[in-house]
Amino acid sequence: DTAVMASDLTKPVLDALSESDAPLLSSDAFPSDPSATVKAALDRLESRDMVKYEAINTEVLTLTAEGEEIAANGSHEAKVFAVVVAAMDGLKITELPGIVGKDNAKVGQGNAFKRGWIKKDNDLLRATTDSIVDETQQHLLTVQKTKTLADNKAMQDLKRRKLIVLSKEITYKFSKGPKYARELVKEETDLTPEMIASGSWKTAHFKPYNFNAKGAPTTAGTLHPLNKVRQEFRNIFFEMGFEEMPTNRFVETGFWNFDALFVPQQHPARDLQDTFYISDPLKADGPREDDPNDPHLPKSLKSDKPLDYQQYWDNVKEVHQDGKFGSIGYRYPWNADESLRLVLRTHTTSISTYMLHKLAANPRPVRYFSIDRVFRNEAVDATHLAEFHQIEGVIADFGLTLGGLIGFMEVFFAKMGIHQLRFKPAYNPYTEPSMEIFGYHEGLGKWVEIGNSGMFRPEMLEAMGLPKNMRVYGWGLSLERPTMIKYGVSNIRELLGHKVDLNFIETNPAVRLEKD
Ligand code: PHE
Predict the structure, then answer these.
(1) Where in or outside the cell (predicted)?
(2) Handedness of CA 42, 43, 44, 48 (dihedral sign)
(3) What residues contact residue 162 under an 8 Å CB cut-off, 6+ apart?
């Protein structure tokens, strides 16, 4: 097969140049080879300085399928003339389509009249001459051979009749390069021990490194975009002196998720339509001491002092039911069973609460954060799933003020490139005051809600046994939101769940939050 044999033109290019010091044109030297094949050979030789070349874009004329047909068999008008001239006594007009076909009859008749080859005689067609020159066919044959047509008027006419089209063609003009040789020497791609031992490396031709080569994609595991953005947030927290909280408790008791946070048992967030409850087992054990040496706890929480869980439990009950620590409470009969119900945690504030209670064994200034999954029984749409990730931080210290919380937020969000913040009073059962945080997003050009924050209530902190003068900031935001903004994903289902395009996960770039 010549096409296969001709597929490497390296040698033919070198041969063609051996007789010529002047540049050659690929359209002359290799008229029937595809231009990609020519280019491949030229690129290969150019990379070794054996040839130089440039690409020339030219416009050429080519025949359409109908043009090819006419070049082979003659024009419509020539076909009409042929049958008319053959009919000695004239040809009935109505018979013409039956002989030459409808199309030929219609177009050909008109053109033959225009050229004066035939005339009408009542209902007959008669030839006015014995022979004609089929210019249309002649022109098409010229185009077929030379890809051009000097007669501009004829060229326009053929184009209008859709017999020829103008198309682009690349021609390569190539000549000898500084290292031109008739043969392509083998280039070594490796320096081997054998070459060194034998000394053959001294005369070997080594292939130069191709620093432009992209390299084959490797199959490897990749991090999900959420994990990449999570890592960025973890770094921000670590550089601000935070310790990471262990978040492996996806299933929580109502106690840690709600009651300890001073969320009343009638609160709508505790309804079935907002929270997922566990059906098996239905209930948790009652209050008891847990492992004080849990290796996953932040170092600042290691303490030998035992915590009185029963006292804490009783404090929570009392503060809800009757009021305590200067609070009048909610004044409803508190139900222990409601507190022992198991839920999929609705926020990671359950973890923060658990940690703060541990802090009561040895109260001191601490900074904790966590980034993990939470669950809410919500209608799923383009921006909401029934599970998402929360980024949460808490800061405990003596003498903290609301101004300090606002100041901290400005520093924290500036580290992710958000420099303008607005705060709006809000309500959480467990914080007072509470603030929603809005940030001006330069990329989106608008204010977006970026988080919820507040100072934990004394009802919550004092019940744990934390000192009266200790204050605790808390705030939370979703991990999905900044990730979607960063990666330009508008539907959360493209980021999480079964509709995720694995190719997107594998090829998405590393992410950096703009820092100053
Ligand atoms: N738990 C809150 C939420 O889910 C976030 C928050 C945490 C608010 C701590 C205040 C204090 O949105």
Answers:
(1) Cytoplasm
(2) positive
(3) 64, 66
488: left (phi over 0), alpha (psi -120 to 50) or beta: left
Q: pTM value? A: 0.63
Whole-angstrom distance, CA of residue 324 vs CA of residue 347: 26
pLDDT, tens digit, 9 for 90 and up, residues 124-148: 999 999 999 999 999 999 999 988 9
- What is the DSSP code string of 95-160? GHHHHH-HHHHHHHHHHHHHTTSEEEETTEEEESSS----HHHHHHHHHHHHS--S-HHHHHHHHH
CA of 251 to the centre of ligand 1 (A): 18
Q: Which pair of tokens denotes residue 46?
A: 């150019």
Does the structure's ipTM exceed the value 0.95?
Answer: yes
CA of 93 to the centre of ligand 1 (A): 92
Q: 435: which DSSP letter?
A: E
Residue nearest to atom 3 of ligand 1 (CA): 476
Q: Is 349 in the pocket of ligand 1 (CB under 6 A)?
A: yes
What is the Å distance from ligand 1's center to 369 Cα? 12
- Rounded Cα gap, residues 324 and 476, in angstroms: 27
